[in-house]
Design brief:
20 strands, 7-stranded mixed beta sheet, single chain, 4-stranded antiparallel beta sheet, 25 helices, alpha+beta, 746 residues
Amino acid sequence: MKLYVEDEEGDAVWVKATLPRPPEQYEPGLVVDAVVRGRPMSVKLPAEEMYQQEGLDMENCDDLCDLGHVHEASILDTIQERAHCSKPYTAAGDVVVAVNPFRWLKLYTPELRALHSAPPNSYEERRAAHCYSVSGAAARGAARGDDQSILVSGESGSGKTETVKIMLVHLADVARHGGATQQIITQVLRAGPLLESFGNAATLRNGNSSRFAKFLRIEFDRRTMALESSWCETALLEKTRVVERAKGERAFHVFYELLQQRRRRTPKYLPEHPCRSADASATKARGFDDRQSYPKMIESLETVCQLDEAEREALLHCVDAVLSLGEVQFDSVYARTEDHGCKVRNALDLTQAANALGCDHSLLEEGFLRRTVGTSTTSLSAEQAADARDALAKELYSRLFDRVVELSNATTKRQWALQQTESVVIGMLDLFGFEFYGAAGSTNGFEQLLINFANERLQQRFVADVLARAQRELLAEGVPWTRVDYQDNAQVLRLIEARGGLVDILNEECIRGGSGADANFVGKLLRTYTGDILSTPKIRITQAGEALPFKIMHYAGDVLYRCTDTASWVERNRDVLPAKLVEAMTTPAGPASPGGSANVASPVAVFGAAEARQAALQRKQRRQSGQRALRRGSQVNAAETVASKFRAQLKNLMHQIAATKCRYVRCIRPNDEAAPMGQAGSFDRIAVVEQLRCCGVLAALRVARAGYPDRKPLRAFVERFAVCLPGDGRSSTLKRCRDAANAAGL
């Protein structure tokens, strides 16, 4: 008997074993004699009876449904064998598993794109698994008039962003054959790299990590499949990265692209630059360094946003203004009164920052040094002043990013196309992967919770689409099958987003004003929810008044979250800019700076325009809810917190996706060092199997195998088997299929 058993000596997870004297009856946990790696030894039988594959060429197994024995060990072996043979794509029923090879392969040719664009012929052999098969199926579904969504998921560094770009090129080919103009195709393809410059960064795990959620919607003419329109919806930009990052990580790419071009001194907001490890990581992931990417970014601003040289300089001046804020430093002032306060260390730095922003110098200084609540004014400490400065830098960059997205959409989103009735949309979701920082000195904070919350929602959608729906279909068709159990994450989602859940409890602390505290939030959360999905470590080493850490059992693994003084959940969720700084940024110092225009103006104008739109939206929401209007920067409403707005955005996104036909690509990161496939140690079996377990691939395969994984459309079935039918062939397609099945005794 040849089985797989657990690898208790190494890191292979599962190893092949031969049992010379197999037991008469299989008993999980039974210790038997076996031969493993040519050595006799005693092994314990695993919980599942996993036979080895016999007579199957794993390298050429394009669909895991073809495996003679579908279990974790055979899936892992097949994916590894194919990855080492430069075949990173493997189908798992309707899902495509994509292993990041960390190098470019000759798999993205025009011939392959054309092959996967054409409808499958009933007589041809099955096509090799590819991400083009997903985008091709989406294009054919759109041509039939059904809106489509392609959901690409995986952990950070698994290749999601590159996979989306590869499939986007394929859809552009489809549009080109449909008669789309070259101009709009170019604009759509170059919009992605532009958002990468402003929204991606090098992290410890990924040199080109998306630090925002992006849902790209492409609109086609239903009759010709010509590309008519495209627009991008974004959410949850990690603006904290502007002012602080983990050691060895970088801020957004655009900062370094600008620094390489202008060769200015290293700003204090980017003390790690040049950071060789992070720079090398970013260069390796993107395929070019900052000096090479700067012209690409400028070209995209010109092509996509249609900005002239003066307008481009004005936009990039906003990036310079963010960096100039980091140069403003503060020193404590000691006095006989309790209200010590602080002062600006170098007045010239403040003057240069005010000039760069284009705002009133005195108002900016007042906003940094003092805080006014009602009729009371207090002086800020040096630490509080630095927090106010950082808050302004983050908010300015966030609004700059929104402006870039707005300019990009204004060019590619055709208003006339939106009014056409004969149109169909393909959506492509590129969402940051599940995040868990377990290294010493790293903290899973507020941003990581929101990221993991979004991934929980996507996992729920995957379960509903691929697993639950397939099982309902088999049941409705009366197919004999064995029910497959799968992990349901409804409890975790209720914990986070339900009424009275984590988001609501955090909001309660935020609207309490100055009395809101992280310790109160965590304490109430732990009192409200008890059980396996939420816990706190038994050994609680905390200082007085410090919030306890808490652990949430996510679908991808347990994550320990912490609230710290430097990363307060209450403050980050409240995200309120002091009123005096809002006033400073909406009060221009004088005429618009040279290069300002109707499209792109000075930083203070960009900030002011966004502030006006946000204030109008808040007034509308308050009128609808009957609430009294609040002064900007003084208080916060529960519906205006970061978590509440993200929850609403995510709910709307899931509502849009639910109205479409969803197709899935599950990306796998094979190793943590970004080692190219084929090198020694490039396939970490432990890391890969953990990703396979949490992404639901094994359960999806079992559901597919429980029914009939090889399915043909009715028309293809008729073309193949109509010769078996008697008569003149004038019957309807459905009747002919039924007759053929009856004639064959099926």
